[in-house]
Structure formats: C-alpha cells, structure tokens
Amino acid sequence: MDRAMEIIVPADEQSGGAHAARVSLFADWVVSTGSNPANAALFANFPISAEAQKSEWRNGLKLLGGEASKSSLADALARGASGEANPRTDLERFFVTLKQMTIVGYYSSEVGIHQDLQYQGNTYIYDFPQCTGH
Predict the structure, then answer these.
(1) Phi, psi torsion values for 72, nearest 5 degrees
(2) CA 32 to CA 38: how far, in whole Å?
(3) Of 67, 61, 6, nearest to 28 (Cα)?
(4) Residue pair 98/23 in contact by the 8 Å Cβ criterion
(5) Which pLDDT does position 79 carry in this prediction?
(6) Are the beta carbons of 57 and 44 closer than 8 angstroms?
C-alpha cells in the first residue's frame, strides 16, 4: 500500500511524497476506526458501514496485489486509473478509493500542508506583489 500511495503522490524537489507523509498509516487508521461517518466519503461505494469499509479495503488491496503480480504495481495502478472518471470494475473503483485516501492523507499531513502547499498559517499579508498593477 505504501508503494502504491507513493506512486500516486511521489516525492519531488519541493516535498516528500506519500511515503514521507506516512499516508499509509493514515489509511490504516481510517479503515481500522471506521466509525466516523465522514470516512465513508473516502470510499467509492459510499455510504457504507464500517465493516463494509474494512472489507472493501482488504479486498481492494488483494485485488491490486494480484493485478500487480501480473506485471507491475505501476501498471496495475494505471489500469485502475484508466476508468477513474467512470469506474466500472472492482479495480477501477478501488483505485478511486485508494487515490482519495492518498490525497486526503497527504494534504492532512505536515509534509503535504507545509512542504508541498507551503501553508504558513493564518498570517496577514501586507503586500501581495503578484497582484500589483492589476
């Protein structure tokens, strides 16, 4: 799962990727707690119960692993992503869930917020030179 998430949000020169942000731990936490109704929105087949979330996640990971064993993890993710706009297969639906989980986890982390987005908090900006003269 960690490698798949790193492929979705890789490290670059500005910030670490999903691995550095420990996004797989976020996903484990979301799936294991499962009691927060807001978490259901992370699943492609929402609204679903906490037990269904766990089952869908486990089955999706198994499916992704099986697909990756046929070629590579990157190829399996590409096949899942190919139907992202209108997922029809279990792999495509799991890819949507995996990507949503990865993005939410990444941008909820220190790495995503402060390194990638360079968020500085609620600070007053006295001058914004990019907008002068417009």
Answers:
(1) -155, 165
(2) 14
(3) 61
(4) no
(5) 96
(6) no
